[in-house]
Amino acid sequence: MRHFLPLLLAAVLVAGCGDDSASETSTTADTASVSVYFLRDGKVWPVRRQVESADLPSAANQALLDGPTQAERDIGLTTEVPDDMSAPLSDAARAQIVYTATQFSSGDSAEINGIDYTRADFEEQTPLILVESPLPFEQVSSPLRVTGTANTFEANFQYELVDSEGNVVDKNFVTATSGTGTRGTFDFTTGDFSDVAKLVVFENSAEDGSRVNEVEIPLSVAS
Predict the structure, then answer these.
(1) Is residue 159 domain-shared with residue 101, that is, in the same domain?
(2) Where are the beta strands (DSSP E) in the chain?
(3) pTM as predicted
(4) Across all residues in the chain, what is the average pLDDT?
């Protein structure tokens, strides 16, 4: 089944395969939590939006068109999805659209102007470590489950949890299902904590051990 996702302007048509039951979104009777993909240093990076649940793809698409909030811009998020959808789309903009559209089913594609794309078509626009949960500014509880995808050297990377005073309260080594040119998935659970201000993911350089591909995700503890 093709799932229709209008981009609100007729110049671009996006469609995803599968049905909404495959989505990982959190839904209540009236609202749902969906991911919207903006850019960080030119790479896709998701944030959470609470939207009306009557038509999740259209609502997620509208949130994409609305762009990042000021708080999100303050941590470096941008967008290349234009207000005028008749304008040519950059690869980064296509990546944003496809990532946002394809969250609503597993292993699907999205169509833009008659061409089918998958997330794999945008490896250059995907960070080597992409955390898809938790997302920036979310309230979290202990312990923290972290999921996403990675394409790091030998599939390895590290994480740290940092509290509001700058102390590292948990850290560990993570191995994704694949790496070194092939994107894999990861799913791990941190140790317990009482205070957290951010999750940091990074690789250690094979050349000198310095941190590379580092990303900080601001968080807070749910009350």
Answers:
(1) no
(2) 2-6, 13-17, 26-27, 31-40, 43-52, 77-78, 110-112, 115-117, 129-133, 138-140, 145-150, 156-162, 168-175, 184-189, 198-204, 211-221
(3) 0.86
(4) 87
Dump pLDDT digits (tens) for 125-164.
999 999 999 999 999 999 999 999 999 999 999 999 999 9
Report the C-alpha gap between 45 and 36 in whole angstroms.
Answer: 8
Q: Which residue range is the domain that position 57 belongs to?
A: 2-125
Same domain, 120 and 145: no
- Alpha carbon distance 5, 86 (integer Å): 17
Q: Yes or no: say if 63 and 49 are a contact pair by the CB < 8 Å rule.
A: yes
Tokens standing for residue 192: 């317990």
Contact 162, 152 (CB under 8 A): no
Q: What share of the chain is helix, strand, coil (3-state, %, to 5)?
A: 20, 40, 40
pLDDT above 90 for 20: no
Q: What are phi and psi of 199, to 5 degrees?
A: -105, 130
User: What is the band of 223 on the pLDDT scale with cuts at 50, 70, 90?
Assistant: confident
- Give pLDDT, residue 100: 96
Same domain, 30 and 56: yes
Tokens encoding 106: 């597993």
Strands 138-140 and 211-221: parallel
Based on the structure, what is the number of domains in the chain?
2
